[in-house]
Amino acid sequence: MPKAILIDPVVERSRGVLTAPEVPVNAYDSDPAIEAERWGTERLVRMYRDMAFIREFETMLDSIKREGTYQGIAYNHRGPAHLSIGQESAVVGMCAALDVDDFIFGSHRSHGEILAKSFAAIEQLDEPALMALMENYLDGDTLRAVETFSSRDHIRSLATDFALYGTLAEIFGRYAGFNRGMGGSMHAFFPPFGVMPNNALVGGSADIATGAALFKRVNRRPGICIANIGDASMGCGPVWEAMMFAAMDQYRTLWSAEIGGAPPMLFNFFNNFYGMGGQPRGETMGFGMLARAGMGVNPEAMHVERVDGYNPLAVADAFARKKQILLEGRGPVMLDTVTYRFSGHSPSDASSYREKQEIEKWRSQDALLTYAHYLRENSHATDAELEAFTLEARERLTRVLAAAIDDTRSPRISVAGDAIGDLMFSNQQRDRMAEGTPETLLPLELTRVTQTHGKARFGIQDGKTLSGAKAVTYADALFEAMIHRFYEDPTMVAYGEENRDWGGAFGVYRGLTEALPYHRLFNTSISEAAIVGTAVGYALSGGRVVAELMYCDFMGRAGDEIFNQMAKWQSMSGGVLTMPMVLRVSVGAKYGAQHSQDWSSLVAHIPGLQVMFPATPYDAKGMLNLALRGTDPVVFFESQRLYSEPETLVAGGVPTEYYEVPMGEPVVRREGKDLTIITLGATLYRALEAARTLESDYGLSAEVIDARFINPLNYEPLVASIRKTGRAVLASDACERGSFLHTMASHLGTLAFNYLDAPICVVGAKNWITPPAELEEAFFPQASWIIQTIDEKVLPLKRK
Amino acid sequence: MAVPVIMPQRGNAATSYVIAAWKKRVGDVVRKGDVLAEVETDKAIVEVESPADGTLLALFYEPGDEAATLTNIGAVGAPGEDVAHLRGAAVSAPAEQAPVSQAAETASVAAGASSNGTAISPRARMAAASGGLDLTGVKISGSGPEGRIIERDILAALSARPPMTRMAASQAGAGDLPPTGTGIGGRVTSADIVRAGQPAAPLAVSSRPVSPDDVTFVPMKGVRKVTAERMRASLQSTAQLTMVMHADARMLKSYRAKLKASPETMGLRDISINDLVLAATARTLVDFPNVNAMLMPDGIYQHKRVALGFAVDTPRGLVVPVIRDAHALSLKALSGEAKRLAAVAQEGRLSPEDMADGTFTVTNLGSFGIESFTPVLNPPQVAILGVGAIHLKAVEQGDAVAHVPHITLSLTIDHAAVDGAPGARFLAVLAERIKHIDLVLAQ
Q1: Which residue segment(s) compose the domain that A694 sits in?
Q2: Which own/partner contact pairs does B51-55 have at CB distance under 8 Å and 24+ positions apart?
Q3: Residue of B123, B145, B148 with shortest CB distance to A755
Q4: Domain count along chain A
C-alpha cells in the first residue's frame, strides 16, 4: 500500500475491453541452414549425444526396476525411479540455451534435466575449473569413487562419468552420490553445474526457483532461474502463488531501476499431458491449452508460448529468446513445452489410462529418431556415428552402474552413529552471507534505532511498570535485531504481507521502510506458500532472508513450504546447502478460531527446523540475533500478547548493544524449591502469577523456567530443576492434545523418573477452537489452572 | 457342641511341640481335667487335659507328630457330632498368632505399591530407600492426590523415627523401635533392633535362673558405649607409661584463697584450683609441642596452639569438652570457658564440635581424695595429665622436716610418640610452674 500508487476511481470505473497478447503455438520455423550456422555441427551432434545418453540412462533404470538387471549386472533398487523416456529432446534443447550460471529446479522426473544441464556445463567450463570443482565437491568423495573406473587423462570424459555416477549413486542412496544419498532419485541435484534441487512435491520448485531468481536479482548475480514443472502442477496453489510473486508490478514500478526489474524467472511446464494417470487437458483442468494460463497473470501474458519439445532446436531457440527477456528484467516467462513420456509414471505404472495406440503414435515421432534423421539429412552425422553414442553410453553406464552398486566403492551413509542426524543442521555462524556493503537509505544512527536506544531499557522504574512508549518493548527489541543484521549482511532481505510502509501488522518493522530500499524490504502478494517457498529458494541460493507470516494460523497456507522444503533441504542436500532463513510467525489472540492458535507443536514434529519462542524483550532481541547469524532454518514464534510489553524480568533490561541468547538454553525466571513450572511463550507470565499465589497463599515455592526453545532444547537444566523439586507442571498456549509439552513431559519423565513425586502434568489450551475474545480466559491457560492442576494431580494444596 | 483339644503354649518362643503319647482313645468317655495326651516341649513333658466332659471324638495327630502350638489336636463332644471343621484349625482368639502369609506380603510390595496397596511416587520410594525405611507393612497415609504416598509423607515418617545408623535403618522395617539407641548421639543401631525384638528380661549370662529383682540391666549405649570403645581402643593401640610427681601447692592454695576473697564485682571468686592447674598446664604446653601433639597414622602432629580437653563427670558418663586456645586465655577467661562447657556437659548438650580436636587432656580426681592414678590416654593425643588431691608432704627444710601441701600430677604418655625423658621434663617444668603459679599468671 505505497502512497505512490494512486487508485483513481475515474480510471477504475471507466468502460473498456481487456485484450491479451497472442500466444504463439509451436511457431518455430526450422531452417537447417540457419541452424547449422547458429549452433554448428559439433553442438548439433552433441545434442543428439546427450539425448542418447539420457535415453540409455533411463533405459538402464527401467531395466533395473523391471528386470533387476542391466547388461548382465544384477541389482535390486528399492527406491523410486520416475523416468522421462521420450522427453530427452526437450531437456537437451533447453540446456543448449543455458549457461552454468543459469539455475534449473526440477521435479520428481528430472534425471534427464540433471544430465542435460551437466553435459552442457561440462562443455562450457574449462578443464582446470572442472577438475577443481570435482575435487572440492563433498570433500572429493564422489570423484574418488569415479576414479576407480575413469581416468583424469581425459577430464571432460571423467566429468561425464562424474555426472553419470554422481546422479546414479544418489538415486541408489550412496554416500558418494551428489547428495550423500539423502536426496535420492526425486531430489538429486548438483549446484556447481547449475542443477538446483529437484522437488518431489508436484510444483514444489515453482516458488523455490522464484526465490532463487529473487536472489539473483537482488544480489546482481548472473543467470536466470527455471522451474521445470509438469503440466499437472498448474493445479497447485503454490505454483500460482509463485507466478503472482514473480509477476508483482513493484519490481518495475517501485524498485530502483538499477536493480534490473523483475526476478529472472522462467516457469517451464514440461507438458507431457499426464499427471500420474490424470489428464490435465480434457479431464482435470480447464485451460484447453496450458499456455493459456499465462494470460491470466500479467499484461505480457508471461511472454508465454507453446514450444514443440520434440524438436530440440525449437526448444533451444525458445529458451534463448526467453532468457534475453528475463535478463532485461521483463519477466516472468512461461513456457508450455510439449513432450511425451513413453515410460509410465513409475515402473509400477501399467499405463492403464492410455491407449497403446497413443504411445505408438508418439514413438513414431520419437525425437531420437527424427533428430537423427535431421542430422543425417543435413550431413551433420552418419548413422554409424550416431549409433556409436548409444554404444558409448552403454559402455559408460555399465562401468558407472558397477561402481554405484559396489558397497565397497559406494558405501551408504553410516547409520551406526548419528551421521544423518549431523546433516540436519549446518550450525554455522555467519555475520554476512556474502561480502559487500549493505544497501541502505540512511546511516544507522539516523534510523529508528536511535529512538529505541533512547527509551528506558528496563520496564520497571520505582516499582512501576513503564508503558511501551517509554520503555523498549518486545516489538522494539525485534526491530533492533532486524536492523542490526540488515546493516551487517548485504544479502539480507525481509518480506511478507504489510512489511513495508505499515511496518508489519504489529509494527515490528516500523522505521525500516525509511532505512532500506525496496528490494531489501517489500510487501508481497497474500501468498503464504510463496512467501515461505521463495524464502527457501533465496536462502538455499546463498542469501539471508526473513519471511513473515502475519498469524501463526496461516502456517497451514504454507504447509508444504515449511514442513517439506524449509525443513528438509539442508539434510536432503547431504550438507551441500545452507538455509539461512528465519520465518517469523506471530501467534495471535483475540481474533477467534482462525487467527489465535499457537501451532508451535506442529513444527516441533518436523525434523530440520530450529524453533524458538521468546517471551521477553531481552530474549526477543537476543534470540532473533542468534537466529539471524545462523545458517539454519528457524521458525521464530512471537506472541501478539507481548509486542507492546517492556522487559520486566531480566535485570538491566534489553542491552542496546548486540548480544545473543545461548542456543537451546532454557532460562530460570524464578527460583523455587517445591515445584517446577516450565512454560513456552507468553504463558510464562501466567505461570509467574501462579507462582506468586502459590507462595503467598499456600507457602509453596515454585521455580519457573521459560523453555524458550523447542529445538534444539537442552533438557539438563530442566532435569536439574526437577531433581530438586520432584514435581513439574508444563504450560503453554498450545492446545493440550498433541502439544509439544507432552513430548517434553515424556523426556523429563524418563530422565528424572526416580526424582518425581508426582506425574509431570501438562496444562494447555482447551481442545476447542479459540472462542471469541471475551471467552478466551476459558480457553487459554490461566494462573488458576496451573494452581488447580497442582492441587488435583501433583500436591494437594493447603491454604496458609 | 464339640470342643477342641488345644496344643498348649508354654513360654513365648515355642511354636510347636511333639505328641509323645495319647492317654485316651477315640470313643473313650472323658471328664474335664482327664489327661488326654502327653506332649514334649523343649524343656519338659507337659500333660494335655480334656477341656470338657464328653466323648473323645477325634485325635488329629499320631504319637510322634509335631503340631503347632494353639492348634487343635483333638475334639471332645457328644457321640456322632461332626468335628471335621476342627481339624487342623488354629485357635482364633489371639489373632496375631495366626500364621502370617509371607507370600502375600511380598506380592504386594512387588506390585509397586506400598503394602497397604496405595500408590507411591518414585521420589517417595527413593526417599524411603535412602532413609532406610522398609515400606513392607508400613502404615503411612499418603497425602498426595488420591492418597498417593509422596515424598513429604516419607520424610515425615522418617523424622518420626529415632535417629539410626545406616545399617540399622536398612534393617529397621516398621517394627517397634526403642525411642533412643545405644549408638553415637543415641542413634539406634542394628544391635538395638535385634534387642528390641527380644524379651525385656535381662539376658542370662549364667545358666542359673536370675530374678529380675536382683539385677539392673544397663544397656551399653550413648556415652557409656563410646567411652567403652574409646578406652579399650586406647589401651589396645597405645604404649602407655605413667609417671608421677608432686608439685608444691602452697602458692596454689594461697592464690585460690585470695581469689575467693576478692571483691565480687571482679568475678574471680569461682576460679578453682583445677582452673589454676589448667592455666599452668596450658601455658606450659606451649613450650612442649612434643607433648601437645597427636599421633596419626602418617606421623606426629605437634601443635603450637593448645586445645585443652578436661574430663567432666556427668550423669550420662564421662565427657571431655575442649577449651580452644587455652594457652592464650586469661585465667578468668579460661575459668569461665571451663565453667560454661562443664555446665553444657551436665545438660548433655555438648556438640561434637565442643569435644573435637583436643591436643591434650587434664583429668582431675583430686576432689574425691584420690592421691594419684594412671589416667588413660585419649588418642590420638599423646599425653594426659591426671590431677590428684592436695596432701601434706614431708619436706626437708634445713635440718627440720616441714609438712608442705603438694598436689599430685600423674602424666600418662604414649611411649610410641614421646619418650620418658621428654615427658619427665614437661612434668618437672609444670610442677615448678604450679609452685610459682602467681608468676606464671603474671606472664
Answers
A1: 667-794
A2: B51/B3, B51/B4, B51/B5, B51/B6, B51/B76, B52/B3, B52/B76, B52/B77, B54/B2, B54/B3, B54/B29, B54/B30, B54/B78, B55/B27, B55/B28, B55/B29, B55/B30, B55/B79
A3: B123
A4: 3
- Assign residue B181 a region (left: φ > 0; alpha: ψ between -120 and 50; beta: otherwise): beta
For residues A104 and A219, membership in a common domain is answered with: yes
Residue of chain A minimizing CA distance to B147 = A796
Q: Which positions ≥6 away from A57 have C-beta within 8 Å?
A: A111, A112, A115, A164, A167, A168, A393, A397
Q: Based on the fold, state whether residues A580 and A722 are members of the same structural domain.
A: no
> Where in chain B is CATH 2.40.50.100?
3-97
Q: Which of A723, A724, A757, A793 to mutate to test the interface with B (most CBs of B within 10 A)?
A: A757
**A267, part of any domain:** yes
Is the CB of B121 less than 8 angstroms away from the CB of A794? Answer: no
What Cα–Cα distance (Å) separates residue A387 from each residue in A311, A391, A632, B43, B315? 19, 7, 49, 117, 118
* Cross-chain residue pair B148–A792, CB shorter than 8 Å: no
- A120 in a structural domain: yes
Q: Is the pLDDT confidence value at B314 over 90?
A: no
Which CATH number belongs to the domain containing residue A529 in this structure? 3.40.50.970
Q: Which numeric CATH code is attached to B3-97?
A: 2.40.50.100
| A379-393, B19-33, B257-271, B318-332, range with greatest mean pLDDT | A379-393
Q: How high is the ipTM of this complex?
A: 0.71
Q: Are residues A84 and A184 in the same domain?
A: yes
Yes or no: is domain B224-442 CATH 3.30.559.10? yes
- Residues in chain B whose Cβ is within 8 Å of chain A: 121-126, 143-145, 148, 150-151
Chain A residues near any Cβ of chain B (below 8 Å): 726, 753-758, 792-796
C-alpha cell at A364: 513414431
* Residue B100: per-residue pLDDT: 39
B90-96 own/partner pairs: CB under 8 Å, 24+ apart: B91/B4, B91/B6, B94/B70
Peptide bond into B99 cis (omega under 30): no
One domain for residues A452 and A574: yes
- The Cα–Cα gap between A430 and A434 comes to 9
What span, in angstroms and rounded, lies between the C-alpha atoms of A513 and A542? 24
Residue B124: its chain A contacts at CB < 8 A?
A: 757
B123 neighbourhood in chain A, CB within 8 Å: 726, 754-757
Q: Is B123 in contact with A792 (Cβ distance < 8 A)?
A: no
Report whether pLDDT(B101) > 60. Answer: no
Residues of B in contact with A726 (CB under 8 A): 121, 123, 151
Domain edge (last residue) among A639, A659, A685: A639
Whether residue A70 is contained in a domain is answered as yes
Regions of chain A with pLDDT less than 70: 1-3
In a shared domain, residues A598 and A494: yes
Do A396 and A350 sit in the same domain of this protein?
A: yes
Q: What is the pTM of this model?
A: 0.72
- Cβ within 8 Å, pair B121-A754: no
Residues A688 and A616 in one domain: no
In a domain, A472, yes or no: yes
Cα-to-chain-centroid distance, residue B286: 37
Look up B419 and say whether it is catalytic. yes
Task: Please tell me the number of Cα atoms within 13 Å of A699 on its side-chain side.
Answer: 5
In which residue are the cell numbers 509371607 written?
B102
Return the bridge partners of A703, or none.
Answer: A676
Torsion of CA B55, B60, B66, B71, to 10 degrees: -80
Under 8 Å CB-to-CB from B174, ≥6 apart: which residues? B133, B134, B136, B137, B138, B139
Write down the catalytic residue from B34, B134, B287, B415: B415
CA-to-CA dists, residue A191 to A101, A188, A196, A573, angstroms? 10, 10, 5, 10
Same domain, A402 and A537: no
